[in-house]
Amino acid sequence: MNLLTRFDRWEPFEELTTLKNRMDRMLSRFTEEGEEPLLTARWAPVSDIFETGDAFIVKAELPGIEEKDITVEIEGNVLTLQGERKLETETEEKGYRRMERSYGKFLRSFTLPQNVKPEKITAAFVNGILEVTVPKKEESKPRKISVELKKKLVSAA
């Protein structure tokens, strides 16, 4: 086997998967009952965060989860989404050939800027998408400044 052939067969994603599996096994030793949620979280939902003139919007994909299994909390300036996706127990076949969807507890935290109104945060859950709206304080909203047309600028001299 020559050197070029060895490079052709290198699969970086396979190595990353192996590393992830080893890390999962190592961290699974810390997931006893009563542990902190960060250690018991099995997965984290993918999320989008964007800013409008009035608020920050967080959208998290939570398909297959019921509203009652989702908790949205704010502590200080940290917004935390957590809950659980339960494993489907009714299947016609006895075993799985491959299981790619994540089940179990999830946790996702976002650090918010200081210019928000935590008491006005709202959350809505529609079609498996959780949308959390975090309003901005009035003084932090952008304001438009009009430009006047003058004949001559004031000089600093």
Outline of this structure?
By secondary structure, the chain is α+β, with helices and mostly antiparallel strands. Helix content is 18%, strand content 29%.
Write up what this structure looks like.
This protein is α+β, with helices and mostly antiparallel strands and 157 residues long. The chain contains three helices and seven strands. Strands 1-2-7-6 form a four-stranded antiparallel beta sheet, with no helix packed on it. Strands 3-4-5 form a three-stranded antiparallel beta sheet. The longest helix is centred in the N-terminal third of the chain and has 17 residues, at 12-28. The chain starts with a helix and ends in a 22-residue tail after the last strand. The mean pLDDT is 79.
Topology (SSEs and partners):
Elements lengths: L2 H7 L2 H17 L8 H4 L6 E5 L3 E7 L8 E6 L2 E8 L18 E8 L10 E5 L2 E7 L22
Task: Name a few traits of the molecule.
157 residues; alpha+beta; four-stranded antiparallel beta sheet; three-stranded antiparallel beta sheet; 3 helices; 18% helix; elongated
What gross morphology would you assign?
Answer: elongated
Unreliable spans: none
Cross-sheet strand order for the largest sheet: 1-2-7-6
The radius of gyration is 24 Å
State the order of secondary-structure elements, H for helix, E for strand.
HHHEEEEEEE
- Describe the main β-sheet briefly: 4 strands, antiparallel
Mean pLDDT: 79
First and last CA, distance: 79 Å
